[in-house]
Design goal:
Blueprint (H helix, E strand, L loop, with lengths): L6 H18 L3 H7 L4 H9 L22 H13 L3 H21 L2 H13 L3 E5 L15 E5 L2 E12 L6 E13 L2 E10 L5 E3 L13 E12 L3 E2 L5 H37 L1 E2 L2 E2 L4 H30 L3 H30 L9 H9 L9 H11 L6
Parallel strand pairs: 1-4
Antiparallel strand pairs: 2-3, 3-7, 4-5, 5-8, 6-7, 9-10
Amino acid sequence: MSFQLSPELEQFRRTVRDFAEKEIAPHAAQWDREHHFPTDVVAKMGDLGLFGLIAPEEYGGAGLTGEDGGFTSLCLAIEELGRVDQSMSVTLEAAVGLGITPLLAYGTPEQKEKWLPDLVAGRALAGFGLTEAGAGSDASATRTKAVLDNGEWVVNGSKQFITNSGSTLTSLVTVTARTGEVDGRPEISAIIVPSDTPGFVAEKAYDKLGWHASDTHPLSFEDARVPEANLLGKRGRGYAQFLATLDDGRVAIAAVALGCIQACLDMAVEYAGERTTFGVPIGRKQGVAFQLADLQVMLEASRMLVYKAAAMKDAGAPKAEFKQAASIAKLYATESAVTATRIATQVFGGYGFMEEYPVTRFYRDAKILEIGEGTSEVQRMLIARGLGLPVE
């Protein structure tokens, strides 16, 4: 078994790294301070082809398949953006994983033709509205409703913490909604709601702990009417479709974490070689050196878990095996990222508490990695179930 990326994938990584260091890194701190979502950079990411890596050529994508390492390429792009700014990294992760992927997997030819070209080109963004005040990890508790009336879905309800949902680039949000009951249980379907639909409002953006340059809003729907043809996939399969989408998303969010760990190690090693105490660099002190050694181990282990899961996706691994690998990668990499930011901040000492140093931003940004795309607790539950344990 080879653990080396192909020359083509390594070249792609270098291309994305050059882009990130030139177009994102110099501005990330300012965007963070100003809570600014840089739509112009999103457009440049589109020009580079990052949103279309796994999309067919007929919609303007690169048409990369599993044999080409398509999903691995996406994870590499997310990782490299995450090395300089998690906000832009998660913008790509959500735009593809939660916006484009459901359309590719479940959309009709007409839906794909209508929405994908702009999404793939980076001219537009799509969100996925699942989470509600009482329905996050327990997504089946969805309260948003959609009722058919004269050939239209009438949507009422609200969503929260939805990425890419309220910017000037947002063209649609796919929402899960109750569309009836089957055997006494809620029937949950997925419905495409264009951003200009009357009755659909993206409320004021959140004031978040981190990811300040990412676009995140609560959403409300009051008699928002869309055509019946905006049903995504089969009626009543919205929850199952979302769960399948999340498996991919967990590997992708682990790739964000991987970029974070790499950045923390790079920053901490450089600082440990420059900062002196008692006449020598602090990197010569075992208390610092051993922590950085542990961080290197976490980085390598996280990278192997993420790349393995991505390779399994590309190879068409059995669903149950991929789901287990995705949860393992997500759990370990995201928790390691939070630890990495704590270690790096500690190495920087008092300077690590100052906003002028990027390590501070990484520290704030990292916590959500343990929550989004399924909390650490949910991942442990899924992994245990994969072992045959009937965990509730």
